[in-house]
UniProtKB/TrEMBL annotation:
The keyword Methyltransferase applies. One of its GO terms (molecular function) is rRNA (uridine-N3-)-methyltransferase activity. GO terms for cellular component: cytoplasm. CDD domains: RsmE-like. Specifically methylates the N3 position of the uracil ring of uridine 1498 (m3U1498) in 16S rRNA. Acts on the fully assembled 30S ribosomal subunit. It is an enzyme of class 2 (transferase). It comes from the Bacteria. It is found in: Cytoplasm. Pfam families: Methyltrans_RNA. One of its GO terms (biological process) is rRNA base methylation. This is Ribosomal RNA small subunit methyltransferase E. Keywords: Cytoplasm, Methyltransferase, rRNA processing, S-adenosyl-L-methionine, Transferase. PANTHER family: 16S RRNA (URACIL(1498)-N(3))-METHYLTRANSFERASE, RIBOSOMAL RNA SMALL SUBUNIT METHYLTRANSFERASE E.
Amino acid sequence: MNLLLLEEADFIAADRVVLADRRFVHMQDVHGVAVGDTLRVGRINGLMGLATVQRLERHEAELHVSFDQAPPAKLPLTLVLAVPRPKMLRRLFQTVATLGVPRLILLNSYKVEKSFWQTPFLQPDVIRENLILGLEQARDTVLPEVIIEKRFKPFVEDRLPAIAEGTLGLVGHPGDYPACPRAVEQPVTLAIGPEGGWIPYEVDLLGKAGLAPVQLGARILRVETAVTALLSRIF
C-alpha cells in the first residue's frame, strides 16, 4: 500500500492510533518499520499526513499522526456500470477508487445474469474493503459513493436525466458511432455496458436520458479494460 488509511476506531487520542490488523502486518512485512520510522497516512474521508512509529510490539503498533495535506481531486464523473461478472467486481471496485471516480452506479442490464446480483462482492463491507485497497494504491482518502440500481428502465427514465443534466453524457458502446472524445474539461456522465454490450433498446433509452453512444474502435474490451481505457481517453 502507498498510503496507510486510518479508521476512526484506530484513534486512541486526537494524534495517536493503534494498529493490529493487516495494516500492522504490512508495516512489518513490507516496510520493515522500526520505532522512529515515518509512514504516509490518511484519515478516511479526511486529510493525509505522516505517522511516526512510537511503539512496536509483537501484535500491535502505536503511531503518532498529523494531517496537513488534502487528498487528490476526484474526476468530474458519474460512472454508470452494468454489473459485470462477480470475479471481476473486486478488481473494478479497486480500479474506480484508484482512478478517482467519485460516484459509481451499478446497474442492471438485459445481458447481466440474475446470479450476478447474488455475489458476496456486492455486500457493503466487501465493497468498502476493496474501495479502500484502491484508495491505498492511489494515495487517496475519500471513498467513492456506490449506488446499486437493480431496475434498468425506472432508473434510466426517472433518475438518470437529472444525474446527466449539465454534464457530457456518453455511452461506451462498440459500433458505428463517433469516437470517444479526448481531454474533456467538463463534468461527464459515462455509462459502460456488460461485456456483451448494451442491447439496442438500452442504447436508445440511455440516449433519451441524454447519453450519446461513442466507441473506442473495433475491438471488444473486457469491462475492467474498457473502464480504464475510456477514463484515460476522456480525462
